[in-house]
Design a protein that fits this description.
alpha/beta, ABC transporter transmembrane region fold, Rossmann fold, 20 helices, binds adenosine-5'-diphosphate
Amino acid sequence: MIFGRHINRYYLRYAHWLLLGLASLIAVDYLQLLIPNLYQMVVNGLNQGWVLVDGVQLPFDMDFLLDRICMPMVWVILSMVAGRFLWRVMFLGTAFKVEESIRNRMFDNARHLSQNYYQIHKVGGLMSLFTNDLDTVAECFAWGIMMFFDALLLAVMAVAKMLRMSVMLTVLSLIPTALLLASATVVGRYMMKKWDIRQEAYARLSDFSQESFSGIAVIKAFVKEAKELLAFRKLNEENEVANIEHTKASVLLRVLVMMFVESVICIILGYGGYLVWKGSFNAGQLVEFIGYFTSVIWPVMAVSELIDMSSRGKASLKRIGELLDAQPDVVDAPGAKPLDHIRGEIEFRNLSFRYPDGEYDVLQNVSFRIEAGENVGLVGKTGCGKTTLVDLILRTYNVPDGTLFVDGHDVNRVTIRSLREGCAYVPQDNYLFSDTIVNNIAFAVDDWTKEEIEEAARLANVDASIRDFSNQYETMLGERGVMVSGGQKQRISIARALMKDAPILILDDSVSAVDTDTERTILQNLRQTRKGKTTILIAHRITTIREMDKLLYLEDGRITAVGTHQELYESCPGYRKMVDLQKLEEEGGSEHA
Ligand code: ADP
């Protein structure tokens, strides 16, 4: 049984099911303790030829066997089967509901968390929270409750019956129990620590496997399979060691329980035998006493299981709690209002930005203005801050007050959702889901027609490529489907963004993998369809951006020039150098061709 802020509510919410399960559990335990008395009657009947029932001496014959032993036994067994079925359904059914609810809460919180969280926590580790840890918590909830109450009830009822038979024999039998419980508590604490280490090792292993499979192409290209295997083996070994450490403690606990059972049997046989010899107990009573004690073995074993299980459950619940308690760091400011009908005017005012875990300002005193409906190109060397700058427009990270405005509104005063709804984004990695092409393109919109999808694909110049696939728009992409080329991926991502028809479109290096003719067609289509809407395009090729209304040149996090291609070429040495270098490369390329 485990308790904590994140699980207590379920005990209350499902109290009716749990109480029904508990009632059947009590009934089963009560019935189970009727059986030793039947043993006593059989042993004494065989020994003496008669049996004492409620002070009356009855002959031990076929009628007695049928009416007093067999029939009650059949009823007890049938009722126990029904009771066991009922409590299992109640407890396990509740556990499934708890598991579903916690998983929903975990996913719900995870999707609100900011990008920063996912940079710190790796996917493999997060996946193990949703699988391994959640399984452990659910198991602990269902079996934990069952074991706790079953052990408690059975132990109390059995001990009461034992006490009624012989106080001294019961007290002697309970001494090892006290010793066992004390040592089991210590071992339990140790096991909780070991389980935590085990889960951490498992998370590391799953992180590594996930990264290895995702990066398999790079590993193969660099012939680093052996290096990966060694690294995997090392992590797997750590996982094994952690498993062994935990299992050692778990086995120790089981051995302690076995020792307890055997020592109590010794006591019962020794002292109980003495009582029979003295004449204060008969053989049937000794068998009955052993029958009650047998019923106590399970509760004691259950206590050890419970300690093992709840130590694992607590550690897993703690890890799940960390995800459930994690707060998104990019949230709406109090009183933030939705920004309706965005026109697409963007202004950076003296904005400096440092990543939450960064050591220097990636953007420094950036100031510029993009008018609504402008086509703007963002250029600069790799690492100068272009992606960071557009990420800030999308409010992926927090910005200081009074530094970034959309349509004249400080982005910190408007809701993040309304701002993002006004933007369409083609990210640098062009992530596509393992789904059909049509579902990928339609991802951002709820209502769409086939014609709209095809038009978006046509504008992104990918319609013809899609029609070449045998299933056309219904072609599955990704792991379970076809692999598309880098250029096709980029163009499907552009089609997805165009479907949204947002007032602000951001393309981060989105045409780098297509040939110059295709690029020209896409840019022409963009110009025609996005008249009056803002488009920001990050690019390295000068051919991509030279026709834009305005270019922003970034150098080491600073905007060093703003103007048209011609203006920048004349006034900005860094830009001129870049253009000349590309020209030279092109000429060199054509000479070689
Ligand atoms: P560009 O898009 O111009 O190539 P970026 O905006 O991606 O450049 O990166 C600008 C700088 O910020 C780089 O020095 C990069 O290392 C750093 N950077 C990018 N992302 C992060 C991050 N999540 N945390 C810390 N530093 C980052």
